[in-house]
Amino acid sequence: MVVREKILDLVISCFKRHGAKGMDTPAFELKETLTEKYGEDSGLMYDLKDQGGELLSLRYDLTVPFARYLAMNKVKKMKRYHVGKVWRRESPTIVQGRYREFCQCDFDIAGQFDPMIPDAECLKIMCEILSGLQLGDFLIKESRYCHCFEWKGIDKHLGH
């Protein structure tokens, strides 16, 4: 647990340095809301009924509840992070490295920005976190992000 806490402290402090605010969303969502968003993966959700018979599901990830929050509150721009538990009704397996209940960490930039700037910032954050973990050198391979590294001053070969 101590190692996990140190890693989360490093990750969260990086998110905060980049202007993100911490946010939590409910663990329960209306089943119909999640079913519309996940399609065939909706079979992997845990379903429940409240005392009134309303169908609910445990959150499958942290993204859909955040999108619902943005839409309901008419948020125009936001940087947020969220570390929380999610649930998937699948066979627990060491190969996938997770169980039915696991912790997920999200960093999101929502709103209108200059093209590729949020993508470049996410790459920069990833480099800062990997460097902070002191795991050794790493390489980030470019695909469509051809100029993101230059925009944010990232050395893609060392991750610094």
Notes on the structure:
The protein is of the alpha+beta class and 160 residues long. It has a single domain (1-133), classed as Bira Bifunctional Protein, Domain 2 (BirA Bifunctional Protein, domain 2), CATH 3.30.930.10. 35% of the residues lie in helices and 20% in strands. The chain is built from five helices and six strands. The chain has helices spanning 2-17, 31-38, 63-73, 117-132, 148-152, and strands at 21-22, 28-30, 47-49, 55-58, 78-87, 101-110. The chain has a three-stranded mixed sheet, covered by helices on one side. Strands 2-4-3 form a three-stranded antiparallel sheet. Strand 3 and strand 4 form a beta hairpin. Helix 1 runs antiparallel to helix 4. The longest helix is centred in the N-terminal third of the chain and has 16 residues, at 2-17. The protein is globular. The two termini are 28 Å apart. The model has no long low-confidence stretch (mean pLDDT 83).
